[in-house]
């Protein structure tokens, strides 16, 4: 029976060494939840890197055996591959370029060589398990070359590709020395998906101008096949967040936080450490808000969670220092004996604590400079059982295309962010509830299960269409 193979750089599991041996922790991320309904079924599998460096062959074998029981197949990366493919080309070349921070991009041939080599390694891992008729779904910017590599070996298979981060405009994308190879890699797929129509449009324009292919109405004709390009805005598992918000564990945490924070209005900020998330700009806006609104001193707290990420990369280390300094400066300037304007945490929180924070927050301040989608804002919406609360959302997040009832801001406009904070803090409850109700409808309707279903259906559709076009 044909199966579905999912491939992403990281497997939906964390493998760690402990004194008791290897420990496996399943990911609670949105992608893992959504695709869980697929890869755990029948003979379907998920192929990816387990996220840890394993030198020892016996250990690799152990991991392979353990993961196989959960339908997962690991691709092991060497130390130099982790450095040059993952931290290098993926995170220091593609990530900044695709988020419009091309001034941070490093163009290094050894990174590029490692990127090709690791994509080839993934291709081999897929080929060891793929059979005719299988459906293959490749995820994200670490594996842009993989669709074409697979296509050259299994011509007829259905290959879908989804990019979770933005696709930049042609003027930015063309800065990459390897632009044509990257596009040709993606064009090995039958269906190429992005979070927004703008991303899809930017991709099509790069294909037309760099590869010279005809692109019309979201279809690319490469002379052999028609490739479909479209927007598939990713959703979340809304029920999971609503259920968690109603749970005893979350309620207990909410009581604890409420007692500690007393009558404070809570502004919540949650991100991975990343310059694309606009954390320093958000802090500067909050500082300006405090300066201009002394009546709110002692009455609002910015609860800021920064989840450690990529801290081996120099740029991220510097960003962490900038954030530490800004928080220190703002707190030392405005704090009183009984009030700290910013509660700052540089660590990851367990789900029920995250849920309690979403539930008690008056405002979620989500202001990335650029974000493919941003799931935090959707999780905040799904957790608001009483519909009270305001979402302040950057226009530069893919989610802003769907969530028109948020207070939308441009993260480069400090004055607008300050105004948004004032408006949100003063917004009447009935308006909060009306806006939240609208956004909940969207988050519910276009949830993660809908996203998976619609992508898979469209992949099937384009495959059928290719066949009918071939016989015409
Ligand atoms: C990429 C794209 C796109 C955060 N802190 C904690 C925690 N989280 C979870 C959140 C959320 C996830 O991390 C972050 O997701 P985002 O979508 O906001 O951002 P990226 O990680 O950059 O993801 C992005 C996404 O892919 C999907 O396509 O939306 O644009 O950049 O789920 O809840 N989870 C736990 N503790 C924390 O402290 N447990």
TrEMBL record:
Pathway: Glycan biosynthesis; trehalose biosynthesis. Its EC number is 2.4.1.15. The chain holds residues 1 to 472 of 723 of the full protein. One of its GO terms (molecular function) is trehalose-phosphatase activity. Keywords: Glycosyltransferase, Transferase. Belongs to the glycosyltransferase 20 family. It comes from Rufibacter immobilis. Homotetramer. One of its GO terms (biological process) is trehalose biosynthetic process. This is Alpha,alpha-trehalose-phosphate synthase. It catalyses: D-glucose 6-phosphate + UDP-alpha-D-glucose = alpha,alpha-trehalose 6-phosphate + UDP + H(+). It is an enzyme of class 2 (transferase). The lineage of its organism: Bacteria, Pseudomonadati, Bacteroidota, Cytophagia, Cytophagales. It comes from the Bacteria. GO terms for cellular component: cytosol.
């Amino acid at each position: 029976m044909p199966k579905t193979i999912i491939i992403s750089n990281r497997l939906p599991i964390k493998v760690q060494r402990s004194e008791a041996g290897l420990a496996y922790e399943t990911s609670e991320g949105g992608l893992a939840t959504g695709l869980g309904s697929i890869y755990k079924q029948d003979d379907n599998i998920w192929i990816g890197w387990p996220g840890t460096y394993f030198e020892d062959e016996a250990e690799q074998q152990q991991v392979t055996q353990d993961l196989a029981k959960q339908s997962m197949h690991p691709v092991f990366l060497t130390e130099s591959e982790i450095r040059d493919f993952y931290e290098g080309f993926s995170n220091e070349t593609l990530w900044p370029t695709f988020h419009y921070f091309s001034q941070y991009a490093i163009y290094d041939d050894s990174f590029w060589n490692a990127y090709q080599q690791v994509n080839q390694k993934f291709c081999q891992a897929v080929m060891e398990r793929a059979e005719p008729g299988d459906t293959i779904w490749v995820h994200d910017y670490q594996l842009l070359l993989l669709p074409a590599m697979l296509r050259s070996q299994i011509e007829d298979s259905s290959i879908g590709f989804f990019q979770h981060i933005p696709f930049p405009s042609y003027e930015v994308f063309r800065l990459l020395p390897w632009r044509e190879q990257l596009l040709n890699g993606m064009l090995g797929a039958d269906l190429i998906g992005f979070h927004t129509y703008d991303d899809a449009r930017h991709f099509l324009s790069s294909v037309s101008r760099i590869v010279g292919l005809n692109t019309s109405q979201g279809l690319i004709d490469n002379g052999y096949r028609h490739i479909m390009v479209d927007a598939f805005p990713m959703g979340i598992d809304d029920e999971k967040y609503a259920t968690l918000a109603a749970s005893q564990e979350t309620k207990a945490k909410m009581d604890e936080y409420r007692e500690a924070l007393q009558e404070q209005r809570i502004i919540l900020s949650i991100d991975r450490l990343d310059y694309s998330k606009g954390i320093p700009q958000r802090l500067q806006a909050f500082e300006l808000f405090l300066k201009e609104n002394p009546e709110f001193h002692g009455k609002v707290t910015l609860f800021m969670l920064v989840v450690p990420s990529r801290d081996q990369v120099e740029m991220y280390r510097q960003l962490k220092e900038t954030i530490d300094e800004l928080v220190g400066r703002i707190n030392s300037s405005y704090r009183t004996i009984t009030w700290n304007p910013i509660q700052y945490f540089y660590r990851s929180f367990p789900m029920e604590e995250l849920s309690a924070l979403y539930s008690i927050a008056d405002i979620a301040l989500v202001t990335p400079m650029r974000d493919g989608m941003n799931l935090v804002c959707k999780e905040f919406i799904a957790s608001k059982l009483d519909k009270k609360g305001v979402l302040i959302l950057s226009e530069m997040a893919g989610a802003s295309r769907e969530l028109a009832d948020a207070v939308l801001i441009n993260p480069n406009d400090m004055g607008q962010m300050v105004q948004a904070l004032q408006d949100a803090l003063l917004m009447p409850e009935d308006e909060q509830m009306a806006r939240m109700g609208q956004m909940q409808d969207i988050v519910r309707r276009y949830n993660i299960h809908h996203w998976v279903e619609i992508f898979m259906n469209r992949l099937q559709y384009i495959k059928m269409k290719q066949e009918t076009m071939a016989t015409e």
